[in-house]
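pipeline/complex-builder :: batch 7 item 3
reading input block
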Amino acid sequence: MNTISSLPENNQLNDLLVNLKDFLKKEIIPHEQNWLKMPWSEVEKEIRTHRDFLKEIGAWNPYLSKNHGGPGYSLMEVAQISEVLGGSFFGHFACNCQAPDAGNIELLLQYANDEQKEKYLFPLLNGEIRSCFSMTEPDNAGSNPILLNTQAKKENGYYIINGRKWFTSSADGASFAIVMAVTNPDAENPYQRASMLLSPTNAPGFNLVRNIPIMGHAGTGWASHSEIIYDNVKIPESDLIGPENQGFKLAQERLGPGRIHHCMRWIGICERAFDLMCQRAATRKTGLKSFLGEKQMVQEMIADSRAEINAARLMVLNAANKMDTLGQKAAALEISTIKFFVAGILHKVLDRAIQVHGALGVTDDTILALYYREERGARIYDGPDEVHKASLARKILQQYGLKVHND
Amino acid sequence: MNTISSLPENNQLNDLLVNLKDFLKKEIIPHEQNWLKMPWSEVEKEIRTHRDFLKEIGAWNPYLSKNHGGPGYSLMEVAQISEVLGGSFFGHFACNCQAPDAGNIELLLQYANDEQKEKYLFPLLNGEIRSCFSMTEPDNAGSNPILLNTQAKKENGYYIINGRKWFTSSADGASFAIVMAVTNPDAENPYQRASMLLSPTNAPGFNLVRNIPIMGHAGTGWASHSEIIYDNVKIPESDLIGPENQGFKLAQERLGPGRIHHCMRWIGICERAFDLMCQRAATRKTGLKSFLGEKQMVQEMIADSRAEINAARLMVLNAANKMDTLGQKAAALEISTIKFFVAGILHKVLDRAIQVHGALGVTDDTILALYYREERGARIYDGPDEVHKASLARKILQQYGLKVHND
Amino acid sequence: MNTISSLPENNQLNDLLVNLKDFLKKEIIPHEQNWLKMPWSEVEKEIRTHRDFLKEIGAWNPYLSKNHGGPGYSLMEVAQISEVLGGSFFGHFACNCQAPDAGNIELLLQYANDEQKEKYLFPLLNGEIRSCFSMTEPDNAGSNPILLNTQAKKENGYYIINGRKWFTSSADGASFAIVMAVTNPDAENPYQRASMLLSPTNAPGFNLVRNIPIMGHAGTGWASHSEIIYDNVKIPESDLIGPENQGFKLAQERLGPGRIHHCMRWIGICERAFDLMCQRAATRKTGLKSFLGEKQMVQEMIADSRAEINAARLMVLNAANKMDTLGQKAAALEISTIKFFVAGILHKVLDRAIQVHGALGVTDDTILALYYREERGARIYDGPDEVHKASLARKILQQYGLKVHND
Amino acid sequence: MNTISSLPENNQLNDLLVNLKDFLKKEIIPHEQNWLKMPWSEVEKEIRTHRDFLKEIGAWNPYLSKNHGGPGYSLMEVAQISEVLGGSFFGHFACNCQAPDAGNIELLLQYANDEQKEKYLFPLLNGEIRSCFSMTEPDNAGSNPILLNTQAKKENGYYIINGRKWFTSSADGASFAIVMAVTNPDAENPYQRASMLLSPTNAPGFNLVRNIPIMGHAGTGWASHSEIIYDNVKIPESDLIGPENQGFKLAQERLGPGRIHHCMRWIGICERAFDLMCQRAATRKTGLKSFLGEKQMVQEMIADSRAEINAARLMVLNAANKMDTLGQKAAALEISTIKFFVAGILHKVLDRAIQVHGALGVTDDTILALYYREERGARIYDGPDEVHKASLARKILQQYGLKVHND
């Protein structure tokens, strides 16, 4: 059953949230417009000037568990941090908990050997290098593992990787990629065919073909999504991440908390857009004495948005809470649900905020147009809405005795 | 901020919820179809045979506070009871916590004098009589107090009530009405013009004109909504309920918890409809070997419904929790929000459940058609969606400095 | 390509439309509320008092072609008559062009032998008897012919019909049924298994089990939908309608024009609801000086409804025009489309009209609540929306080379 | 009443449409991706290489009336040309009937003096220069004429223009602007305050501040929208366009046909997106043997899109037909309606087409992402949906006796 009650008091967290909001407002949001026009390498330099301060207030690597030297917040607490950081495009990066690095850090913390830790994990934790995660392939539906083409053949203590990936986010400028590749093509269980491998981006045969132009921009650095050709990339056996042929299992484990982070980031975006919408409605004149906010059609957009954002947040916090208390498996339905539910609300809220801004809303004079373009993908990446809906329904119908095959 | 976490353990409540579900399944739901065809007076007799059992398991008057001899559940706990009872059209009535009696009991507990307690409150608490609440008028928009026409003039120690009301639910067979009437038409503050008065239904001049036919049925007894003409109904001054001219304040106080009950009842209906929809999808063949549930369009209806019902429940529990912990005023935005948000979801879920049932869905062979007709009003009564949305938006925009006048 | 231009002038039609509107307004609509409470047999008597007048103005059997003695209107012209008649629940019946009789008349005109004409067709054309069409079965998805269970076995010059049907509309009081039954269960092509047979309703073994209660009412006479058990009903071979085993082909032929009639009737309902909604918005006060129609949320409902009704009408007229000029087959995509498109708009317009009426909208004091209940079925009967959408998409995708199998 | 029937045969038009489709397919669409990356001046050169051919097939200035030397197509015929040209971002420009030039040509044909014709109109008609239309102001709601700030004061035979405009489309590289400016600030009727003036873009004081970045791109040349400061721009009195103080009337006249062009262009975009969506659905594998198009959720997107695009086209053609036959005033409701109705459908179809493309849909590897960004404005420019809906509803409610004041 869904449950809800007062959040347990956590003064440390509350202080952090207040500090982070203040930090974003003063140090990040005023620079957004400029940074969005600069090459990433320069942006990164500017953002990194705040690293010491963020460490000081406990905002650096805020997702880390206590036994890895972090603050040890629960997933439900981490979720609230992610919402606040979602208030700016640069929020997560500033605190070193941006995708895809945060997920890669999780994997390395659990599976990296000492050399890998030295070379990759520690610099990552310190925000000195970046990484990427190379799974999606252009020729195959991402939601269906049977269709993965990239191969890693084992020869003489090496894996030889060949294949084409795209939407390898943040590959441009990254030091290494974690690559999903088929290592056991003949496995009966299609979920036990692939492994995760660590490939340096300067390895011979690692070809970054292009930063894919998305909604008009190819982006640079962390803010880009690359197409990569792996052309006989040679990786020592020791650069396997986790057990062989268990790539999908690891990806799945990585996905649960990742979905919470994503969804809460989206809610942070929603709140930002909602705030802009209300400001506009409250101040834009439509006549000599009348304001946009007096129009009922605008009021309806505000009311619906408020209701839906609140619903979205409660759904995600509830899922996080269930994962915290009962584990990821017990929260499977909830995790499936939030992906499409929150992405849908994000889309609607952004659309309304733009509409209320009128012509200004489609310009880049506000941040809304960026979010509108960037986050159209939210209903697609990590599995399109349709896949999640079908999956959720199948799980439910199974409880009613109907076994629907997954095609 | 919206908050959420594990429900505090309450074994007493958990036991009650289990017992109630079992009771509805065995003793109520199997009789629904028959009862819906019988006159209310006979239905009531049958339902009342379970009174002793329900008292025994702590399900009788379950909303009552400890100092009134009840179990003393918090509003958030009461909400969960209301959801379970919402699983049948007769659920709340069985436990003596149906509208409008539950709200009237609240008023009498607080304001009744000894004679009123003896004559009305105690029989109500024991399920021996019924009552009604007479506020809405056919000629005036219910959401605007300035427009109330019914007058109660004070003369020689009596109020003389004149006016026309409708949607006085459950008046047919009730022992008394609590009537909202203007007692101070000249008050500057329009919210301080009306009072609540207790009128026996057998008082001279209390004319029950008709049970209004609603969606094809006039109904009888508790399951009806009457039109009443108050024609010089004479009420002793002592039958004022609460302070004079404070009728709207009392109505408002009554409304907060009432909205929680309503919304959770709707969620109970949603769960019932969802269950029927899934059963149908899992068992109805569309071909020799294919089932309705294998169709993605059906799956989408199931997934969207699951997500939305979960969201609705969390929204209501969150509002209840806020009322429990911070008071009704602090939860004003949340209470405004749940009314339209949950009513909208109720409507969508019922519509989908009918659609998945095909031709069967519009027949009375399932309970869905009843809910579809009966609950179309949910988006209208207690203030139509549009009024709540505008009100919520105005409250929000006020925080942004825009004062929108309420017309 | 979709085409459009000025309607050719047809003064005869224009006069008829004007006369019919006037007739409905004066002679039918004022009686609706009473008639809806009376048993059908009495209603029918009252309506039939207008037969001579309607014959006189050319409104009796207005769908009939010239070579059958009718006015010979094109389908596009007939469509406009159907819209006007749709303005009242009793409109089509008054002019003897109501479903299911109009479709049965078409079948008999084409296939009846002399005896059948004498006994059934001529009385039908004169409005002296009624008929029904018995196809849908409770245990089978109506949209899938493979699943038809009712059998008609040929023995010694007779068909012996056995099976269970429901939603045999207007069976109560009808003189005969046209029954769809499997006559060749082993045919390879499942569309060539069934035939249409004419069964008198007083034939031994024709058991009208019940008028199915739909949305709270079982109805009577023409305004009812029955469940029928065919228990060894014996029909002479000569009462086959059309060629043997071609039942689905005939049903399909009957369906094309039938869909135009239905859709235009719905548009007539939409216009009625729209008119009520606007009247309400223009006259209902929400404050001392303010009207409902000044609220933007109400304005949006009006504007969206106007746009959608116009779109619906153009879609249906365009489909009718294509059928008139290029034939039913060429208009297949258009006919698939209008069913779900118009039914969806009907549903939305009725819902909005009720919402604008507030509490009044759910009462039977306006006609809206009747339509809301009765026409929920519009998105289900003659194939649910989902079936039509899937069918349309499959036809389109076939043009792109994808053969989607129909399950 | 809405009317519809077969299009009158027009072989000349039909040939043109076929030729244009072929031309776009072979000469324009293959270059789109390149051209979108090039500065406009270079694109223009390439497109202009086709001018002679387009003149030859009768596609150059296809909107021109016979008495101006054009083909003299009716608005309903022109609409069909606009749909075909809408199939490419560069379609209208190729044929010299792009906004804002087409509208400016109309104005000059009617109002230009000989000098203006020589200097501006003839080069425009020959595609040698470009122009812009300067009306919208950043500080004022575009839909409310009372709020126009830009002033043109008459002094010594000159107008002195001062003010700030934005969304002056295609100003970058244009030879002149037609500017809307207040010439009679004290006029009682606010619709008679402004005039249209012709200002060369190289006039002293005409400052093109910036091409406004819109959805990530500032654009160049014709494909841009500028912010302009008019700083004491001095215009001879003779460069008034049309009668003084009648600017709004002229703008209104220009708007009617312009809306038809826009809406049909959007339908052209819809058809392009629909085609891409179907191609994708028919060819993209989701499993070893299964295709995207077999999924019902995809089928629903296709079916809904097909229905809605057809509806949109019929609505626009019907409005055009009414303007052709009864005049712009008689078609006022229809013109109000199509703006929001078609823009809404455009938005939905683009969104679905992207969703069906998955990750590919957000990249610039298809044209969809461009349209998604560019055409978000369709629901805003020329009056946001909300303004049109309110306006339509007000006009309707006036017929019911309610005078809603326009604020």
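note: The interface with chain B takes residues 295-297, 299-300 of chain D (CB under 8 Å).
queue -> next item
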